[in-house]
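Supplementary Text 2. Reproducibility record for the structural model of the 86-residue chain.

All settings were left at their defaults, and a single model was retained for analysis rather than an ensemble. We include the record here because the model underlies the residue-level annotations in Supplementary Table 4.
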Amino acid sequence: MSEQALRACMDRHLAHAAMVYRLDDELGTHHGLSWADFVLLTALDATSEATPAKELARSLCMPASQLLLQLLVLILELFDLPGQLA
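Retained model, structure tokens:
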């Protein structure tokens, strides 16, 4: 990869990270959610029926293990059990 292409990738990554930071701050302040949680909940809401975890993970461009961990944390928070994950 050329230095120019690498720099373009870094610039795009940093712009994306800044946007996610702002969205996390806004959603966290007003709704107690992160951007990643919002995206996951929106994807779950958009499915009309049960979707296999692998398929949902693929649609969100994440490994299935990451999806399941994120779902576990959301469920524990929903039932006010955050200490149960440790």
